[in-house]
Amino acid sequence: MVSFRLVLNAVVILLFGSVAGLAYNARSASGIPLQTPKNVTQAEHVNWSLYLEGIRASLGDAKAAFDSGSAVFLDARAPRAYAAGHIPGAFNLTPHELNRKGRKKLEGVPRNAHIITYCGGASCQASVRLAHMLANGFGFTRVHAFFDGWGAWAGAGYPVAKGVNP
Predict the structure, then answer these.
(1) C-alpha separations of 165 from 29, 90, 131 in Å
(2) CA distance 79 to 147
(3) Which residues contact 20 (CB under 8 A, 6 or more apart)?
(4) How does pLDDT run across 67-119, given as a tens digit for each residue?
(5) Cα–Cα distance measured from residue 104 to residue 97, given in angstroms and rounded to the nearest whole number
(6) Distance from CA of residue 123 to its chain's centroid?
(7) CA-CA distance, 144 to 51, in Å (whole number)?
(8) H/E/C letters for each residue in 15-34?
(9) Which residues sit opposite 56 in a β-bridge?
(10) Where are the domains of the chain?
């Protein structure tokens, strides 16, 4: 028979752990919201999903990787948009083109290279699709999607290049 004291101790430990967990969650910068906002946009949902998957790159992450030269940037937009302006050194590679000529386009890029994909921003899903394809279909192990994309980069006044692939 289980004693009353053992059950009481278990309940106290459970309550203490729950209160401590909720307090940590409330104070943490990456805490999980306890209530879902009534109107979650698709962009917010995708951004949160990328964060949970561990493949979201913020504007700060992208800029730090750019400044250090530690990442290969892949622009998933159409060639015309890429030519009009892109992150310097980025290569233009759409998900469709990756399906057609993927292995050839990525020749010489090590599977453990840090890759950051981006497209037009929250209204564009091409960077997310490209990141998933690279990680799941091509075996790249350090892929991140810069979901805020070109709009956030250019809007921040960061370096811009124009023209075709470098």
Answers:
(1) 38, 7, 19
(2) 19
(3) none
(4) 999 999 999 999 999 999 999 999 999 999 998 887 788 888 999 999 999 99
(5) 10
(6) 15
(7) 10
(8) HHHHHHHHHHHHHCCCCCCC
(9) 145
(10) 1-35, 42-155
81, burial (CB in 10 Å: exposed 0-12, middle 13-18, buried 19+): middle
pLDDT tens digits for range 20-75? 888 888 887 777 777 766 676 767 777 777 777 778 899 999 999 999 999 999 99
Tokens of 46: 């995708």
Residue 16, token pair as written in the block: 């203490």
pTM recorded for the entire structure? 0.73
How large is the angle between the packed helices 95-105 and 126-137, nearest 10 degrees? Answer: 40
Topology of the domain comprising 42-155: Oxidized Rhodanese; domain 1 (3.40.250)
CA pair distance 70, 100, nearest whole angstrom: 27
Query: Residue 81 and residue 77: Cα distance in Å, rounded?
Result: 6
